[in-house]
Amino acid sequence: MRYKQFGKTGMQVSEMALGTWGIGGVGWDSNPEETRLDAVRAAVESGITFFDTAPAYNAGAAEKVLGKALRDMGARKDVVISTKCGNEYVNGGYVRDGDPAKILRECEESLRNLQTDYIDLYLVHWPDPNTPFEATMDALNRLKKEGKILHVGVSNFSRQQMEEAGQYCEIEAFQPHYSMVNRGSEELMRWAAEQGMGIMTYGSLGGGILTGAYRTLQHFDPKDNRSRFYKHFQEPEFSRIMALLEKMDRFSADHGGVPLAQIALNWCAAKPFVSSCIVGAQSRAKVAQNCAAFDWELTAEEMALLDKAVEECLDA
Ligand SMILES: NC(=O)c1ccc[n+]([C@@H]2O[C@H](COP(=O)([O-])OP(=O)(O)OC[C@H]3O[C@@H](n4cnc5c(N)ncnc54)[C@H](OP(=O)(O)O)[C@@H]3O)[C@@H](O)[C@H]2O)c1
């Protein structure tokens, strides 16, 4: 595994963070709880020190699995946990709520779920248009003063929203959607990194499509995140991504058959404005395969070649 400083927080994190949306047990392929616990154990054993979760991942279930696995291994103090607030999972849907009293309650619940007395990094999951940022950020300042959270960040915010919210509480981390198949936030990420924020990308495998596991259009349940959240699995995007995968296949063949997921993760991690790539994986085998990406690196020439392939396939 490789490690980087996480912005100006003083924390060092692994360049791959384990994402736990799937580990929560809904919205993705389903696996027994023991398999999902084992994915967390495999991550710790592979040198991952950064874990991303949220109460919205099946109403606290992901936090509970993560908390249990880390406690059983005695690994809590050795890792950085990022969890979130202001986005609730209710009756199979997601509801944004930045109300300060709600956030104070949510934080207590996350601490219980995670079996810990502090959260290293606490992110506002999505901006809530119905609550002034000042109120939300004041609640986060209070939690920081009480030592319940150590650092504050945001996810899915625009620059304007970060600038406004940042007037009330220091924002030390930004979590955007970013991968070879979603580069829309690149300018914003560069700016956020220049402000000293740690940058953690989500959907780093394009919801799984960059692994090459899907070569024909699939039908996913409307509640599956591959139909409701990631648009890569639908036309016209799907065919463009398939053209990119063909180029990645050729790259893989020239590099001893290295898995496509490892190419995608190295591409993401090599971007200078990225601190850590979050990857959702529910099993030991997938975690191990993804971690092996960090045993090798892309050269500048290889990065240029892949950037060109991405532009040719996706920007045309
Ligand atoms: N802030 C936000 O709004 C936000 C939004 C989305 C995600 N996130 C965070 O970012 C994390 C990562 O994003 P994501 O999980 O949505 O998408 P992702 O990491 O791009 O892709 C996850 C998918 O890839 C599959 N996968 C992983 N490694 C694989 C491998 N080696 N071979 C084949 N398939 C593989 C997973 O399979 P299995 O599930 O079957 O293991 C899952 O279907 C989330 O878990 C969550 O922590 C945050």
Order of helices and strands: EEEHEHEEEHEHEHEHEHHHEHH
Helix segment count?
A: 11
Distance between the termini: 35 Å
Count of all domains:
1
Strands of the widest sheet, in order across it, are 3-4-5-8-9-10-11-12
Bound molecules: NADP nicotinamide-adenine-dinucleotide phosphate
CATH class: Alpha Beta
Record keyword descriptors for this entry.
12 strands, binds NADP nicotinamide-adenine-dinucleotide phosphate, alpha/beta, 16% strand, 11 helices, 316 residues
3D structure, described in words:
This protein is of the alpha/beta class and 316 residues long. It has one domain: NADP-dependent oxidoreductase domain (TIM Barrel). The chain has eleven helices and twelve strands. The strands form three sheets. Strands 3-4-5-8-9-10-11-12 form an eight-stranded parallel β-barrel, surrounded by five helices. The longest helix is centred in the last third of the chain and has 18 residues. The radius of gyration is 19 Å and the shape is globular. The protein starts with a strand and ends with a helix. The mean pLDDT is 97. Bound molecules: NADP nicotinamide-adenine-dinucleotide phosphate (NAP). The site of NADP nicotinamide-adenine-dinucleotide phosphate (NAP) has 30 residues, from strand 12 and helix 10.
